[in-house]
Task: inverse folding
């Protein structure tokens, strides 16, 4: 299972294929009638060309999808968990069968370098296999401390779960929620980001190939108004969102108004702490991956590099040199590590944040500009002398930009790390286990990684505190998050 922790590399190059046949796809012939108001548009960020256009579904189509999900739940809620586990094994096989097609679609739709896209699909297959092996035990009746064993907790599914998902990990982000949620007996209704609908339909195809019944995994392509209607619909039992703070506020408030549970995995500005006694080479290697993988478009990326003053100069030199070695370019090339950013508007926003930080007094060591040409590239950027009053410290920078902040000592590093409205994950590098643990005990984050960059892995819970959200994915938490923990007490005395 160690492969889950790493991006899987494959040596061969691929050429992008044309978009396959999917439901609700409109191609070039009617482009004059297509806009962001009428269709979900998938735009290749490497060249600005339209990959696919998907008409937004009508109220009747949304109603039909919710009916299918509700019917599938009613028909399948009592399916033995061992049977569901077998379906997950079949899903792993289906994902591997169409892995190349799915990886190419990810690369076409949001620009993820192809080696990383292939790794994403394999990670999803391993996820399904892991839950097939370990998930059923997590759903077993749980004994209590009531005498004579007469009381227990049963984990019962809630119903159809609406999932509003982002584009940055178009398959992993969905399946890390769907797999444990569906293993527990719920059905899953996916509302994906508009720019990755091709990936959404390929996932639905994989579930179909694996033998999942109609309605167990639904894909809806609707406007924000359609999302609101779905949240309010009595057939939806609960809601999960991965997205921005603004989206979390909107979705969370609507779920609250409907008295429905929700899980929110929102933004992050994760601290990456390097103390004077750290292994600098290991810290630099982890920082480069933690900051620049997926072209920096990771919620739990190492966004604020907080370096103790005794090693900040040496760390900066090593980090800068390693950053210069990163290959940016054609995402279909297996040699590329940094591809284009997924959306042109997000590149503009990122550049504005970089410029604001420089105007506030930061030092530009590398990059700091959009790359000329048709592609949506932003040069790998390193900012030094960043303080807690600057934009790149206070805000989440969702792209290939690293901010280096100097800490006077370990206590100051903790204070800087906690000085954020976010609290998703954190990393600590130190050769002293006791010191690292002491710092970990003080950090206000959902996850802490000592001498490593952060990851999401089925063996451990993933989620945040503060404006990074609430609720947990993965581990046994992900299996039970959308369950009714039902007390069953026989012959109470």
Result:
């Amino acid at each position: 299972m160690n492969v889950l922790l790493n991006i899987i590399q494959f040596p061969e190059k691929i050429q992008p294929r044309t978009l396959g046949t999917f439901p609700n796809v409109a191609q070039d012939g009617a482009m004059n009638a297509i806009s962001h108001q009428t269709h979900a548009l998938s735009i290749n960020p490497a060249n600005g060309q339209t990959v696919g256009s998907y008409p937004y579904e009508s109220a009747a189509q949304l109603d039909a999808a919710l009916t299918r999900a509700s019917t599938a739940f009613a028909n399948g809620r009592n399916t033995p968990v061992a049977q569901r586990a077998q379906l997950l094994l079949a899903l792993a096989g289906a994902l591997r069968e169409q892995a190349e097609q799915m990886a190419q679609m990810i690369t076409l739709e949001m620009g993820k370098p192809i080696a990383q896209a292939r790794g994403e699909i394999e990670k999803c297959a391993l996820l399904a296999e892991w839950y097939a092996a370990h998930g059923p035990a997590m759903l077993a009746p749980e004994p209590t401390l009531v005498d004579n064993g007469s009381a227990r907790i049963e984990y019962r599914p809630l119903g159809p779960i609406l999932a509003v998902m982002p584009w940055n990990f178009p398959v992993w982000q969905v399946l890390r929620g769907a797999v444990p949620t569906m293993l527990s007996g719920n059905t899953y209704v996916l509302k994906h980001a508009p720019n990755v609908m091709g990936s959404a339909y390929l996932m639905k195809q994989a579930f179909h190939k694996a033998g999942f019944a109609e309605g167990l995994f639904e894909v809806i392509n609707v406007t924000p108004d359609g999302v609101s209607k779905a949240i309010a619909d009595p057939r939806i039992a609960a809601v999960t969102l991965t997205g921005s703070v603004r989206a979390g506020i909107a979705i969370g408030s609507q779920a609250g108004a409907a008295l429905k549970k929700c899980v929110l995995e929102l933004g992050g500005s994760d601290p990456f702490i390097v103390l004077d006694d750290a292994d600098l080479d290991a810290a630099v290697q982890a920082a480069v991956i933690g900051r620049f993988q997926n072209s920096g478009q990771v919620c739990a990326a190492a966004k604020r590099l907080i370096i103790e003053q005794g090693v900040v100069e040496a760390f900066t030199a090593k980090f800068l040199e390693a950053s210069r070695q990163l290959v940016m370019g054609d995402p279909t090339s297996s040699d590329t590590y940094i591809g284009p950013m997924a959306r042109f508007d997000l590149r503009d926003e990122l550049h504005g944040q970089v410029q604001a930080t420089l105007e506030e007094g930061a030092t530009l060591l590398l990059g700091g500009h959009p790359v000329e040409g048709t592609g949506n590239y932003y040069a790998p950027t390193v900012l030094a002398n960043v303080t807690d009053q600057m934009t790149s410290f206070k805000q989440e920078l969702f792209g290939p930009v690293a901010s280096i902040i100097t800490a006077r000592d370990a206590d100051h590093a903790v204070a800087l790390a906690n000085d954020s409205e976010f609290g998703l994950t954190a990393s600590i590098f130190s050769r002293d286990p006791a010191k690292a643990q002491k710092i970990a005990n003080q950090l206000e984050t959902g996850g802490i990684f000592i001498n490593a960059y952060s990851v999401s892995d089925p063996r451990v819970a993933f989620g945040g505190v503060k404006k990074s959200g609430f609720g947990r994915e993965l581990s046994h938490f992900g299996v039970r998050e959308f369950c009714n923990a039902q007390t069953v007490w026989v012959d109470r005395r």
User: Anything to note?
Assistant: DSSP finds 15 helices and 20 strands in the chain.
